[in-house]
Amino acid sequence: MRRRRSLSNFGLGLALGLALGLLAGCGEASSSDGYGLVLIDLTLTSEAVSELRHAAYTESPVPCDADVAGVRSRCQIQVAGASTRDDLKKNYDLEIGRAYAGKHRYRLSAMSGDPSGMRALLAFRTFELAGLWVPRVEPVALWLNHEYLGLYLLIEPIDSDFFSARGDRVEALYKARDLLATLESGNDVEAAFAKRADGENHSDLRALIREIDKAERREPNQLNDLVETRAVLRYMAGVQFVHDWDGIHNNYFLARSAGTPRFSILPWDLDQTFGNVLEPSDGELFATNALMRLLYSADYARYLEEVERFDQLVTPEVMVRWIDTFEATLGEAYQHDRFLERESLHDQAESLKQRAERQHEAIAAP
Amino acid sequence: MLRLTQWFPVTLALAAHAWLAPTSARAEDKDELDGVARLFVEKPGTAEAEPEAEVQVRLKTKRRARTRAVIKVEGRYYDRYVSIKDAYLDHAIDDALHLRLGIDKKVLGLEYQESSRKRLTLHRSHVYEMLESLGLAGRQLEFRLLTRPDSGRDGLFADFSVGMDGSRNQNALASLRYRLGPFGWGSWGLLERHRIEHTYLPVWALVSSWWVESGFIRVATELFAGVDAFATEFERTLGDGHTVAFYGPRGEVALRFALSERWNLEPFVQGSLLTRDAREPEAGYQAQGLMGLNLRSKRLTFRTNVEVVAERGSSTSEANESPQRRANYHASAAFSF
After folding, report:
1. Phi and psi at residue A335, in whole multiples of 5°?
2. Interface test with A, best of B306, B307, B311 (most A CBs within 10 A)
3. Quick check: ipTM above 0.90?
4. What ranges do the domains of chain B cover?
């Protein structure tokens, strides 16, 4: 009897201790900080972190809890990207239970090729101003298990929903990948283009490649029936304007939709931009894409019009205004990002402004 | 969502071989299905308490040609998540020597060596969670040689494995353990070729454990040391280039009181201290204390525990310069079948 009582006293004491510990937990403050941006605070079990660490190539999604701009929900996350899988600061695909800005799925881009944190923002805005469809993109502060992973971009994926949200219906959608998307040969078309919409089996892409080949050999062809030439020339001019060398045979989307039944191109993953200044006559840029190479030589006058249109829309003054805005917006998150903190955001911003001036001069030059 | 890894078809093909080969004549070899169903609630810090219902099912086939297939699947209701945890073949060369091939966890330390049913806490204890977060522990495709795999026996045990995970990290893992009655000792060592930033980084980890376990009391102490691959790579690319090695002790004490013939009450405490960077111990540490109470029968286990973690900085982040404190609360009910 005495033993029972001492046991129950012990249990009571322990229960009291547990309750006190619980109260201590309630008094703790969150350490995550959005640094003036939308805060994405992810919580993963250690097992899930381990699976994420061990699945850079198998791309297995793992469960998580997400707090996106104060809204909590369950989520799944997986490593994304191709050549960036081994990076210390990785890209992720995030699927959240409760929609943010109307979407459940997003790409979290680490912008590994961008020491300024703003190049993709500037490039997407440039394409958008010129009238191309671009994904919704927003800088965010990403935290995982109380650790600040850094400044990321939250990017709307280009998928069927992307077109639905813009009042269109996708008919075919392909993501160019692995530096193979040259449109030169139908042999490796599945490897070069990932299918991102139901119902297509690359046959339309093979037909496109056949017609490009005929056109290059100056044989009768139906390329004009398959390609939205003006839209592709506009994309090419944008690529030249922001020097998106990664968007020639790697990171872009080929799409057909109810509204645009012929193939057009959508930009994607624009962190590797604003490097060199190119002149419109620098046609070498398009050498690795058969369609772009063909249109550049066959329709150079219209291409030049499109380049000049970009230059008129996105003047150096416009670019300076955007850069100043982003410098102010990103500053705090940038300073706390351990991958970026050794850089000077201001120096990066000044460099981009100077590049805008030089790009304008290169296009304006006779 | 069910996602099979790229290795799974290989394992499946080998499992098919195990099914088609002649059946073992041993009476104790038979198909087995076991598992556990858990309901648990966790309250991390100030966040809302979150419930979860989890089921783990493990199928062990009958031995054919001395080989059996083992597949373990885990599903979580609220996470809407199903995954294959283990999928391997176990080939018994004889009673004392087994070979395993397939997807299995890296066994690094006492807590991985023992069954999760035996564990005091719902999740792994803090230092083991740290090993997982650093990518030193986890699941991978591996080839493993085990001596005397039956638990609970006295004597010397040794394991050796080589493996590769889905991030293309390659490793070798070895352990040596000795058990005599209630006393035990074990050491585990990992050598890994860690793929990072388009190159490979040599990584190691060591765990050494001593334990006493009788019907009434369990005491375990462990020492941990290893290389934090991510912090090291960060130092190499953006810092001073030094290797970031962590170290620290962990201990736990649990008592077991028999409440009745079927039920046991198991109060316990755990504690650990981990220095994040051996070169600058004062720069970052994690201290953890946990107290809990388990009520166990043969098939049912009720667990509750409160964990307090104090953390100061880390070798790579300046975000937490002042000590941070977090408290987590867990309660769970589990039914084993």
Report:
1. -65, -30
2. B306
3. no
4. 1-105, 119-138+149-336
